[in-house]
Amino acid sequence: MRVLVVEDDPRIAGLLVRGLEGAGYAAASVADGRGALTADPEPDVVLLDLGLPDVDGAEVCRRLRRRSGVAIIVVTARGEEPDRVAALDAGADDYLVKPFGLAELLARIRAVLRRVRPAGPALLRHGVLTVDPRTRKVTVAGREVALTPKEFDILEALAADPGRVVTRQEILERAWDARWYGPTKVLDVHMAGLRRKLAVPGLVETVYGRGFRLCSQDTAPPGPA
Ligand code: CA
User: Fold this and answer.
1) Helix crossing, 168-175 with 185-198: angle to 10°?
2) Residue 97 C-alpha to ligand 1 middle, in angstroms?
3) Per-residue pLDDT reduced to its tens digit, 146-163
4) N or C: where does the chain have the smaller number of CB atoms within 10 Å of the terminal CB?
5) What is the dihedral of CA 200, 132, 163, 47, to 10 degrees?
6) What one-character DSSP code corresponds to residue 77?
């Protein structure tokens, strides 16, 4: 998932880009409306500060919305309610009021993406990895990887929200049964098989005491099988 931060304050833009990258998104920033309208490749989510030096934020929003289904979250300072309303009328999906925390931003992005892409089985991409929930095909850097059904279910649970820690219980419920009471050791066995087949060191990270997550591997080449 690509997130474009449109923000003319370089300090805030830097913080947001780093925070988003830490959460597993591919993030970039531009400092004005022109940059937002000419971004290439087109992002999946635009975080749009309305107080921009060139084009009016609501106008940027309107032009983005006219040509794509990109998710747009506008950002305003407190007291700029008319701007916020104008942006929502212009097609923004949600808004945030400065100052806001990273956790709230990430939650809003997840919520907006759920609404914008409710169709479910879209292709999940994460760095060199693609997961197709419809055909249950997985590729790493274009190479198809044959997984068992359980390995696929585990990977799908992780790839649905890259960067988020998915608990062992969540994975068990998703890949086995709504209520799994058996030993969780079985998960480790399948997880080991999954990692071996993906052959990308560090892609599936163990977060001790919490669960697992997919890490940013946007530039990492696949390791030896
Ligand atoms: Ca600004």
Assistant:
1) 80
2) 12
3) 998 889 999 999 998 888
4) C
5) 130
6) E
Give yes or no for a contact between 215 and 202, defined as CB atoms under 8 angstroms apart.
Answer: yes
Burial (CB count <10 Å: 0-12, 13-18, 19+), residue 32: middle
Model confidence at 118: pLDDT above 70? no
DSSP H or E stretch at residue 137:
strand 137-140
CA–CA dist 138, 31 (Å, integer): 37
* Residues by chain with Cβ below 5 Å of ion ligand 1: 8, 49, 51
The pLDDT of residue 219 is: 42
Higher per-residue confidence, 97 vs 114: 97
CA distances from 176 to 6, 131, 165, 168, 169 (A): 42, 19, 19, 11, 10
